[in-house]
Amino acid sequence: MQDLIKKIGRFIENHVEKIVLVLVGAVCAALFFRSVIFSPNAVIVDKKSFSPASVDRYIRTQADELERRLNSTTATTTAGPAYKSVRTGRIDPNDPIIADIITHPLPQGFEGLFNSPLAFLQDKPAATRPSSAVAAGSRKYKLPPRIGEVTDAAVTFLRAAAWVPLERLTPEKGYDKVQTEPNDIDIVTVEGKFDTKELFRQFRAYFAGEEVQRAEWRDPCLADPVFASVQLQRRQLREDGTWGDWQEVPRSRIEPYGQLFRVVERVEDLPPGGMQVRLMNFKRRDVAMDLLQPQAYQIASSEEDWFPPSFYDKFKLQQRKVEADEKQQEREKNRDQQGRDDGRIRQGQTGQTGSRTTSPGGRYRSNTQGMGGSQAYGGAGGLRGDRSTRGGRTPQNDAYNMGYGDDQTRKRGAKTNRRNTDEMMMPYGDMYGPPGSGQGGKLTTDQVYYEFGQVLINYRTNLAKLEKPMLFWAFDDSMTPGASYQYRIRLGVFNPVAGTNQLVEQDIDKKNQVVLWSEFSQVTNPVQIPKKLYFFAKDAQEAKKSATVEVARYCLGYWRTEDFDVKLGESIGKEMEPKVEKKRVPPMPGGPRITGDPAYAYNMPGGPGMGPGSPYGPGYGPGYGPGGSPDNITRPEIIDYRTGKVLVDVVAAADWGSPPNLKPRPYQDMLYTDNGVNIEHMPVGTTNWPKDLAETYQVVKAESRREPQPFRSFKKGGIRNRAMPGMGDGYYPDMGGGYDQTMYMMDGPGGAYRR
Asked: Is the separation of the CB atoms in 339 and 358 below 8 Å?
């Protein structure tokens, strides 16, 4: 037995590889037949196994059989009783539907309950309806051939710090009622002019005048056009120098009627309520004012303000005149002050009555010849008076020059205080000067605000009788810094017969057109949006393999700069706390502002304090806020100087100078990247920069040297209230604008007075 086992063992040992091959072959054959010859993806349907190919045929056969049986059943089945609607069909009083509720039958179903009890009179002649009701369904109107032309299109760009809302605005929570914070904005304003008088004339002619085919069809309710939209479009300059397609610009972020002003072109797309509800909403005067002349951001930067393009240039020109006038007055004041000082010195040396002293301006006069000469000012003698202020009024007694005493002499270059109590009572000048003049004829920017107020729409404005074209505008606050845009603008009015069959054959294609558009304005000049971040390669250290890069960031209304030593492989720029520099003493509360705004700063006496909407929190009251310094307002906590670029290398380079100096020019080139693939370069050193880069650097450096000023406070009503003092949106120019707002808290043409 043992020999047999040994023989079997030797056999297996000698032929083990063959045995393994046989077993593997058997397994492979089984897998081949199971997975290839016979598919493993069998599907069981009706307790039968099908392959993927045969299951579709089986299901198709079953479906055909079912369809055949259904068709044969429909043809042979006897039709059942017809369905009777309980809405219009007869209902028996014993029907469970009305049992114990209604005791009599309803021959006409539930609809019969709404029939008139005088329906039995219908066999007799019906009373004659008014002719207007008879003609309502058969009226036919022609639409005006053209709505009008938008003329004098202009565009302007403004970058400043503004009060930006922190939440979405709605009609119930407007710009004045939400929390805001000072932040930087870029805003493009596009304006145009439109002849509303001609538009009203056309509508009255085509819906209530000679263009209506029959006199009884004339309807004054259709004859007043209702503005539906102000559409602003823009196109962007591509990298290849061509212009892209026109795209509609969304309404600004401070628009409370954003959803209402969404353009709906077709009747079938109107929201619930249809055309009548939409017309009712847009007829409200406050809605029309926001549509045609929307409110702008309230500018926080004390030396800027928003105006439409036709007034912004006037504003900046008047600013320059004001600055020149202030500098001239300061030079005169310094010269007069020097004359008084010299006079005191000479008077102290002589010590005699009747001695010659120095009058303002450095001229000697005898005190014995003067009338009312002041010893304290070195003998301002004679009837000539003191020349220390314009107009010959002495500073210590001049109510129109409060704060200009000798002990308040300012440094050269500081701005004068153009605002005091008297000018606040006379916002557009005083008895000594015309509008645009402040105390004693001093220049201010008030004239620009006054002129702007004359073109604003209010509740008393009659658009049908405007002799001059109406000024309207729209905003774009969604631009990309560094891009260039062109704009065009147009107006739309509602089609008063949209959704009806009341159009003549030639205009029947506009039956469902909700908005009738004017022609587009001319395309504006290109607008270049400056970048908010620049960096400049100023120096390179070859031994350290590093570069000195100056990064400039626009933040809270001012350019801020910082130098960074960047090594190879490091990012250019990082977040930094602003540098605290020793600066001149800031202006006193209520001090100088180019805009002439009496409440520009938080610390303006009597001005609005920092309420709940302030980013610095409530409870600080009038003042600069925490810390009591204007720098705490205009200086951010952190400035983000990150450029997103990484320094790759600094290499030697050379090129040829520009004519006529055609000589080799060696320099260093800074290589950098933002994605690790595309390598960009910038010459190192100001003398090697391209012309456009050098000009940008000069502008940025000049702006960065400006001393930050306190922010202007947020004011209810914004520039509309500034241009119409005390009246806000309800200002009536023919009443002089001097009445209190409470006198006009009445319903306007379409709703309550808008605060």
From this structure: yes
Q: Which residues contact 132 (CB under 8 A, 6 or more apart)?
A: 216
In this structure, are residues 310 and 448 in contact, taking their beta carbons and an 8 Å threshold?
A: no
User: Can you tell me the mean pLDDT for 659-676?
Assistant: 86
Q: Which residues pair with 247 in a beta bridge?
A: 234
Of 250, 251, 256, 252, the C-alpha closest to 178 is: 256
**Contacts of residue 230, Cβ cutoff 8 Å, sequence gap at least 6:** 291, 292, 472, 474, 489, 490, 491, 492
Tens-place pLDDT, residues 334-369: 888 888 877 777 776 655 444 444 443 333 343 333
Q: What angle do CA 497, 503, 508 make, to 5 degrees?
A: 110
| Whole-number percent of the chain with pLDDT over 90 | 43
Give the global pTM.
0.64
549 band by pLDDT with thresholds 50, 70 and 90: very high
Tokens representing 437? 């003049």
Rounded distance between C-alpha atoms, residue 108 and residue 318, angstroms: 80
Strand partners, 233: 248, 488
Taking only the tens place, the pLDDT of each residue in 285-325 is 999 999 999 999 999 998 899 999 999 999 999 989 998 88
State residue 398's pLDDT score.
Answer: 37
Identify any residues that bridge with 55 across adjacent strands, giving them in sequence order: none
First to last CA, the chain: 117
Torsion of Cα atoms, 149 then 152 then 153 then 159, to 10°: -150
| Beta-sheet pairing, 48-50 with 43-45 | antiparallel
- Kindly state the tokens that stand for 107: 């021959």
Cα separation, 622 vs 713, in Å, equals: 10
* E strand or H helix at 515: strand 515-517
pLDDT digits (tens, 9 = 90+) for 364-419: 343 333 333 333 333 333 333 333 333 333 333 333 333 333 333 333 334 444 33
Q: Is 423 exposed, middle or buried (0-12, 13-18, 19+ CB in 10 A)?
A: buried
How many Cα atoms occupy the beta-carbon half-sphere of 1 within 13 Å?
Answer: 0
Q: How confident is the model at residue 590 (pLDDT cuts 50, 70, 90)?
A: very low
As a whole number of angstroms, the distance between CA 165 and CA 752 comes to 24
* Tokens describing residue 221: 């309710």
Q: How far apart are CA 292 and CA 228, in angstroms?
A: 10
CA distances from residue 319 to 294, 305, 313, 448, 595 in whole angstroms, order as listed: 25, 11, 10, 10, 7
The pLDDT value given to residue 100:
67
